[in-house]
Design goal:
The complex is a heterodimer of chains A (106) and B (166). Chain A is mainly α and 106 residues long. Chain A contains 3 helices and 1 strand, in the order βααα. By secondary structure, chain B is an all-alpha fold. Chain B folds into 2 domains: 126 residues, Four Helix Bundle (Hemerythrin (Met), subunit A); 39 residues. Chain B has 7 helices and 1 strand, in the order H-H-H-H-H-E-H-H. In chain B, helix 1 packs antiparallel against helix 2. In chain B, 26% of the residues are buried. Classes of the chains: A mainly alpha (106), B mainly alpha (166). At the A-B interface, strand 1, helix 1, helix 2 and helix 3 of A face helix 1, helix 2, helix 3, helix 4 and strand 1 of B. Strand 1 of chain A pairs antiparallel with strand 1 of chain B, so a sheet runs across the interface.
């Protein structure tokens, strides 16, 4: 028996590490990976609550798993489009540093 | 007891991988740390009885998405991260703010643990593929179809953005 609070605490810690990575990293690909880390942290709390509510007899508790599925679909779409944008930015700027990508027009 | 020990092992691996993601300066090392985080999260999902979610976590996240990341890192020949100044506000206000926020949330969770209760590991057919599929293709059929349209738009967007101009 693991307390539900442990899962939620792990989720909060992973989410906070994702935000810190988003703030301190300068490489655009690593910033993108921090976003994926935050999505994973949210998925963990979805799955933990699904398990918890199914033990308390809620009928549609498995919806948490379906939501995790949707989050993964959106993350896959986001990764495909985001990495295409990164390639396109690299082609015009020749840099991956976000501090050097600060003008809309070249 | 075994359940708690397994949770602690995989949770520690998870947090260590996430910290290593922040500490490494080369993006390929950060990507491999993220694979470690996602794999141990898949094992934590198995502890929660979520078999289907654990399987697609490994196949889609640790497999497909991270391969895409590693592929782009190699394609762009990304070297070690250069340290530029960045925003001082983000460092001075953001990082302590985030740490404070995480501590408050964690403290609330720990102090309310008796109201929240426990999660057991009983072996039922809770999160297997059949149960998830019943819900996905009955109650959530329309959102499921909308996600397929989203994926189609994302494919077209990636092709348009990725192709050479002119």
């Amino acid at each position: 028996m693991v307390p539900l609070s442990w899962y939620l605490t792990l989720s909060a810690v992973l989410f906070a590490l994702g935000i810190v990575g988003f703030l301190i990293k300068r490489n655009i690909i690593t910033i993108f990976m921090s976003i994926e880390l935050m999505l994973n942290a949210v998925n963990l709390s979805f799955v933990a609550f699904a398990r918890y509510w199914s033990e308390h007899g809620l009928k549609l508790a498995l919806s948490g798993h379906v939501f995790v599925f949707f989050v993964m679909v959106v993350a896959a779409a986001e990764a495909a489009v985001g990495l295409a944008i990164i390639i396109s930015v690299f082609r015009t700027r020749e840099t991956l540093n976000v501090d050097r990508v600060n003008l809309l027009k070249l | 007891m075994v359940h708690q020990i397994l949770f602690i092992i995989f949770g520690v691996i998870c947090v260590a991988g996430a910290i290593n993601l922040l500490a490494q300066r080369h993006p390929i090392n950060s990507a491999l740390s993220l694979v470690v985080v996602m794999s141990s999260l898949a094992l934590i999902y198995l502890l929660l009885g979520a078999e289907f979610v654990a399987a697609i976590q490994v196949i889609v996240y640790a497999g497909a998405i991270m391969v895409l990341f590693v592929f782009v890192i190699m394609l762009l020949n990304a070297g070690a991260e250069e340290r530029t100044r960045g925003s001082r506000v983000a460092l001075l206000m953001g990082v302590p703010g985030v740490i404070a926020l995480a501590s408050v949330v964690a403290w609330i969770m720990i102090s309310e643990r008796h109201e929240l209760g426990d999660v057991s590991i009983s072996a039922t057919n809770f999160g297997n593929t059949q149960a998830v599929a019943h819900l996905l293709f009955k109650e959530y059929l329309l959102p499921f179809e909308v996600t397929s349209v989203l994926i189609l738009i994302a494919i077209m967007g990636a092709v348009v953005l990725g192709k050479k101009e002119g």
